[in-house]
């Protein structure tokens, strides 16, 4: 999941949606009784660890522990306390003006811990590291595998984009709309992504949803949509500069392929935001899409599109079942 | 900098290249006497903080302090000690099966600290956060701004790729070569990137350098280079599968634009590696480049290429000087 707005499509346990409840369970003061079963994932760059565990008093039930180091507190006093004689240093290396140490500060040592208990198999699956694979989707693969797969998911109501139609029809989230162009052919709705708090302009993140229905992804785009795409680009940039003071040279505008929901949408976010869905194997810049369509009207019907799919992704299973994705180079 | 191999081009203070020296200075046991001057950068996702500081005993000199939280130690005993009654929890939120805490562990609290002292203005500049800007380089911009800029840098010997020719001519790094195809038109040298320890296949990172000279970047590629690119792709994939057991569906192959040195080169790395240079605004997939050239022979001479440039980048200054990069949308 890259976008909160898109979460609507993803199953969440009902319980998460409940209001804060008074639990019978006493609030834990320590991890007493916790036992590590296995490491689900270890994101070393982010310093975040996902553990499968149990509690001694009920070994039938599972728990998920998420431990994450906190960013440094940069308040002046906190910083100066960190950089003081209270921080013990053990030298690792000294080379001229460069020295490295293992440092043990007396402050700023707390981490963020999340416990999910009791956790279902679904939770364990959600947090367990998934291998990812690069898949090259040729035009034939799209027509033979991806398109039928997506359509079947709609038939089976596994993909449901009613929430998008609710936004377009003003049945939901109307108060969140940043800007709207009501033209049925070229119009769109611009609204904040769920991940954005709508306060801090430096973490600006919005989604532009075309009013036009039936466009599932960039695979459906041809030269007839250039006017719509240009309209979405220019009006979004103008309103974002006007309302939030962010110029176009500080914004990224792109499609995901595969998208996480199949109503075409443009991600617009601040260039300084460090987001996982902005890699070359997932993000297709709006500017490039427009220019490719102008160069070659059926570019996205002809193009082999490379993408990554997770091990557990049913689309990957569909590719593997056809066994035609092992295209020779 | 994304690639160690590319470091050859970047100026490093001579001192860094010296062997480990015995310093007169006593090894520090704490940060005693350190004073925070300012925050140079705060990478919250990576939990890494860059500070400009001074030491009380010599306020004329500057210091750079780099503080980084360590990844969790996942050895079984270390994990179990973390998940024990020795870790104090303060409840932040409780909602049904979900609880979040601020946790203070008694172990695994050390961080990695680097001190550069005395630090030059160059060091401060290196670590100070740079704003980045999205620049759309049209074909005219390339011909009028980028190409003359790059050529002038070669004339002024600011860009120097002698080290690449030393590799191609077997005058340097010969023992590091993974594979070589000596054809002068389609051949190339494959060698590990400096960042790769050449041991752990999961962090595989290599660079493929064509033998053909004069290709500065993907802007110079046309249909006449497709054979070379396909050759680099197929032979690299074959040798990587053979020597390192990594299949093509676990690899990313791409060019950077702008590159950090101007002899064409392909980055090849393991898909699980979390690398900054793989974003859609920098990385151009080799497969896409080949296909675009097959669709349209002069694709990369015609294409507007979006890229990010840092505030301090002289190329950005060149774009701004021409004032023609504020292209209307």
From TrEMBL, chains A, B:
<dbReference type="GO" id="GO:0006397">
    <property type="term" value="P:mRNA processing"/>
</dbReference>
<dbReference type="InterPro" id="IPR036265">
    <property type="entry name" value="HIT-like_sf"/>
</dbReference>
<dbReference type="GO" id="GO:0005634">
    <property type="term" value="C:nucleus"/>
</dbReference>
<feature type="region of interest" description="Disordered">
    <location>
        <begin position="1"/>
        <end position="26"/>
    </location>
</feature>
<dbReference type="InterPro" id="IPR008594">
    <property type="entry name" value="DcpS/DCS2"/>
</dbReference>
<comment type="subunit">
    <text>Homodimer. Associates with components of the exosome multienzyme ribonuclease complex, such as EXOSC3 and EXOSC4. Interacts with NDOR1.</text>
</comment>
<keyword id="KW-0508">mRNA splicing</keyword>
<dbReference type="GO" id="GO:0000340">
    <property type="term" value="F:RNA 7-methylguanosine cap binding"/>
</dbReference>
<comment type="function">
    <text>Decapping scavenger enzyme that catalyzes the cleavage of a residual cap structure following the degradation of mRNAs by the 3'-&gt;5' exosome-mediated mRNA decay pathway.</text>
</comment>
<feature type="binding site">
    <location>
        <position position="195"/>
    </location>
    <ligand>
        <name>substrate</name>
    </ligand>
</feature>
<keyword id="KW-0539">Nucleus</keyword>
<feature type="compositionally biased region" description="Basic and acidic residues">
    <location>
        <begin position="13"/>
        <end position="26"/>
    </location>
</feature>
<feature type="binding site">
    <location>
        <position position="173"/>
    </location>
    <ligand>
        <name>substrate</name>
    </ligand>
</feature>
<protein>
    <recommendedName>
        <fullName>m7GpppX diphosphatase</fullName>
        <ecNumber>3.6.1.59</ecNumber>
    </recommendedName>
</protein>
<feature type="active site" description="Nucleophile">
    <location>
        <position position="265"/>
    </location>
</feature>
<feature type="compositionally biased region" description="Polar residues">
    <location>
        <begin position="1"/>
        <end position="10"/>
    </location>
</feature>
<dbReference type="Pfam" id="PF11969">
    <property type="entry name" value="DcpS_C"/>
</dbReference>
<dbReference type="Pfam" id="PF05652">
    <property type="entry name" value="DcpS"/>
</dbReference>
<feature type="binding site">
    <location>
        <position position="193"/>
    </location>
    <ligand>
        <name>substrate</name>
    </ligand>
</feature>
<feature type="binding site">
    <location>
        <begin position="256"/>
        <end position="267"/>
    </location>
    <ligand>
        <name>substrate</name>
    </ligand>
</feature>
<dbReference type="GO" id="GO:0140932">
    <property type="term" value="F:5'-(N(7)-methyl 5'-triphosphoguanosine)-[mRNA] diphosphatase activity"/>
</dbReference>
<dbReference type="GO" id="GO:0000290">
    <property type="term" value="P:deadenylation-dependent decapping of nuclear-transcribed mRNA"/>
</dbReference>
<keyword id="KW-0007">Acetylation</keyword>
<feature type="binding site">
    <location>
        <position position="163"/>
    </location>
    <ligand>
        <name>substrate</name>
    </ligand>
</feature>
<dbReference type="InterPro" id="IPR011145">
    <property type="entry name" value="Scavenger_mRNA_decap_enz_N"/>
</dbReference>
<dbReference type="GO" id="GO:0000932">
    <property type="term" value="C:P-body"/>
</dbReference>
<keyword id="KW-0507">mRNA processing</keyword>
<dbReference type="GO" id="GO:0008380">
    <property type="term" value="P:RNA splicing"/>
</dbReference>
<keyword id="KW-0963">Cytoplasm</keyword>
<comment type="similarity">
    <text>Belongs to the HIT family.</text>
</comment>
<keyword id="KW-0597">Phosphoprotein</keyword>
<keyword id="KW-0378">Hydrolase</keyword>
């Amino acid at each position: 999941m890259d976008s909160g707005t898109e979460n609507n499509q993803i199953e969440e346990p009902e319980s998460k949606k409940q209001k804060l409840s008074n639990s019978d369970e006493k609030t834990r003061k320590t991890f007493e009784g916790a036992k590590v079963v296995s490491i689900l994932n270890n994101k070393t760059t982010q310093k975040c660890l996902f553990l499968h565990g149990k509690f001694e008093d009920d070994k039938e039930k599972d728990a998920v522990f998420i431990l994450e180091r906190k960013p440094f507190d940069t308040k002046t006093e906190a910083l100066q306390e960190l950089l003081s004689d209270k921080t013990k240093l053990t030298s690792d290396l000294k080379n001229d003006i460069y020295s490295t140490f293992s440092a043990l500060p007396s402050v700023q040592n707390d981490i963020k811990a999340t416990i999910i208990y009791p956790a279902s198999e679904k939770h364990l699956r959600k947090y367990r590291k998934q291998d990812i694979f690069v898949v090259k989707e040729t035009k034939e693969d799209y027509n033979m595998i991806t398109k039928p797969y997506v359509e079947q998911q709609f038939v089976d109501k596994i993909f449901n984009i009613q929430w998008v139609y609710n936004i377009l029809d003003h049945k939901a989230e109307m108060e969140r709309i940043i800007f709207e162009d009501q033209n049925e052919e070229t119009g769109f709705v611009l609204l904040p992504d769920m991940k954005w708090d709508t306060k801090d302009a430096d973490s600006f993140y919005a989604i532009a949803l075309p009013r036009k229905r039936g466009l599932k992804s960039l695979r459906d785009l041809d030269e007839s949509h250039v006017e719509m795409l240009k309209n979405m680009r220019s009006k979004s940039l103008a309103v974002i500069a006007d309302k939030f003071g962010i110029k176009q040279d500080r914004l990224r505008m792109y499609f995901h392929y595969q998208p996480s929901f199949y109503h075409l949408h443009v991600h617009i976010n601040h260039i300084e935001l460090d987001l996982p869905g902005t890699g070359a194997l997932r993000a297709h810049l709006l500017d490039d899409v427009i220019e490719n369509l102008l160069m070659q009207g059926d570019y996205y019907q002809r193009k082999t599109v490379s993408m990554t799919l997770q091990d557990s992704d049913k689309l990957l299973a569909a590719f593997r079942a056809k066994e035609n994705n092992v295209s020779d180079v």
